[in-house]
Specification:
alpha+beta, three-stranded antiparallel beta sheet, two-stranded antiparallel sheet
Length: about 130
């Protein structure tokens, strides 16, 4: 296993694996509103708030890429954040029927200290 991008692990497998652990109340907010984001430091944020926090999360090169393309007609901010894995931002993507190739497993837990969390695992092969 080698680190390719921050906060992402990659193997020699063609499969995709992602795990997110969130407080239950945060997961419920993101599930209800697909335009919200979550970051452990900044909490639940709107897209505009995420853009304001980019200088604190992104590298200089990532910021240059963002500033170079943010006004492009076909610029998709979520796609940019996904491709660059900037910071520890998390959001829930809304998929239409049969649009997503990944399987998802969602499990709720209560920790020994009483915290309610949700573990979201996505896995599969894209395409």
């Amino acid at each position: 296993m080698i680190t390719i991008r921050r906060n992402v692990f990659e193997t020699n497998s063609s499969s995709t694996h992602a795990v997110a652990i969130l407080p239950k109340d945060v997961y419920q907010k993101l599930k209800a509103d697909h335009d919200l984001w979550y970051h452990p430091k900044f909490g639940v944020c709107t897209t505009e708030e995420v853009k304001q926090h980019l200088p604190e999360c992104a590298t200089e090169y990532e910021l240059e890429e963002y500033n170079e393309h943010k006004n492009d007609e076909d610029f998709d901010f979520k796609q940019f954040m996904y491709e660059w894995s900037i910071g520890d931002w998390y959001w829930i993507e809304k998929y239409e029927d049969n649009e997503c190739y990944y399987e998802e497993d969602i499990t709720e837990y209560t920790t020994k200290s009483g915290d309610e969390i949700v573990v979201v695992c996505n896995y599969g092969h894209d395409g």
